[in-house]
């Protein structure tokens, strides 16, 4: 009787191992940039003026890259960088242009979700290129991740002049395909452990707004990164509860919390800060948790390759995030 039982246990082990591997989205990586390549800068959301591009363009040119500005740099349509059709047309042109090797969103704000369903990704799927940005650009990170194509969560032109040198150099390394590994101080609220999986995520408010749509985040077997800006604490609780109730933490491998910047409270306090809110929900699970990772709405906004397999190690004194070298 022992042999059939042993075989059954072996089968179950193999089954669950295969199931875990299938939960990882097969990822295609755009070609990393080389000197002489062209980067397009477009505004997919709020308006952005060309006079604010100086530091960003200086960096790209110093790295040997060419720059093309989209037609959305300059126009103003109320808060937005042109009408929805104009912004969609500008981004579409850059997606379809084979000479463009990366598309860098000029800034965030709000508006990318208004155009994502107008876009045709047929040529982009055949000839993927790096989509770069954070905050509102999370719409594109999540949508494109579901296509199985990697994107780059990194600083934007509006922030370059205020970014730390570490942030700028991490962006350059990510663009040119150099290895990325971060080691940062741990904090007492972290939960120790180690995990491996594809990195996904972005701005919490945007991820929350995408739930139930074709752009909704997929977290099974993955490591989730979240950050946010200028939110009330009870909003953070509401969004985290929604993710929990929808099962987004059930098969999560690890959780990385970036900047929870400029949070607000009511006259009657919520009773927990953002770290306390996240930790309370995470306590129902056993994956490692890291707070205050240097990414998000902060000067030290390190580059993250969404879709890349990473190893997260949370110790008492340090946290390390290492990106797999091979694709």
UniProtKB/TrEMBL annotation:
Organism per entry: Sinomicrobium weinanense
GO molecular function: carboxypeptidase activity; serine-type peptidase activity
Domain LD-carboxypeptidase C-terminal: 196-312
Family the entry assigns: Belongs to the peptidase S66 family.
Active site: 135 (nucleophile), 227 (charge relay system), 297 (charge relay system)
UniProtKB keywords: Carboxypeptidase, Hydrolase, Protease, Serine protease
One Pfam family hit: Peptidase_S66
GO BP: any one term: proteolysis
Protein name, as recorded: LD-carboxypeptidase
Every LD-carboxypeptidase N-terminal domain range: 39-154
């Amino acid at each position: 009787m022992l042999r059939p039982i042993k075989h059954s246990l072996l089968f179950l082990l193999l089954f669950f191992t295969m199931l875990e591997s299938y939960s990882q989205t097969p990822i295609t990586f755009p070609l990393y940039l080389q000197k002489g390549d062209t980067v397009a800068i477009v505004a997919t959301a709020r308006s952005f003026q060309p006079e604010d591009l100086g530091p960003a363009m200086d960096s790209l040119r110093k790295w040997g890259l060419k720059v093309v500005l989209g037609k959305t740099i300059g126009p103003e349509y109320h808060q937005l960088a042109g009408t929805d059709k104009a912004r969609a047309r500008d981004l579409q042109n850059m997606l379809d242009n084979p000479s463009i090797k990366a598309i860098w969103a000029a800034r965030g704000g709000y508006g990318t979700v208004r155009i994502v369903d107008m876009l045709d990704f047929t040529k982009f799927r055949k000839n993927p290129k790096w989509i770069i940005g954070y905050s509102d650009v999370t719409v594109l990170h999540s949508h494109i991740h579901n296509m199985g194509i990697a994107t780059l969560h990194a600083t934007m032109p509006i922030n370059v002049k205020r970014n730390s040198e570490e942030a700028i150099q991490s962006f350059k390394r990510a663009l040119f395909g150099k290895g990325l590994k971060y080691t940062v101080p741990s904090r007492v609220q972290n939960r120790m452990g180690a995990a491996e999986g594809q990195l996904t995520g972005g701005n919490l408010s945007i991820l929350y707004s995408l739930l139930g749509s074709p752009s909704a985040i997929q977290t099974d077997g993955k490591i989730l990164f979240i950050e946010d800006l200028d939110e009330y604490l009870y909003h953070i609780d509401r969004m985290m509860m929604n993710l929990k109730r929808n099962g987004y933490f059930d098969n999560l491998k690890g959780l990385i919390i970036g900047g929870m910047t400029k949070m607000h409270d009511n006259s009657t306090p919520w009773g927990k800060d953002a770290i306390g809110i996240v930790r309370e929900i995470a306590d129902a699970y056993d994956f490692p948790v890291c707070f205050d990772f240097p990414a998000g709405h902060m000067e030290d906004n390190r580059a993250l390759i969404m879709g890349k397999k990473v190893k997260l190690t949370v110790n008492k004194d340090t946290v390390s995030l290492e990106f797999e070298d091979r694709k």
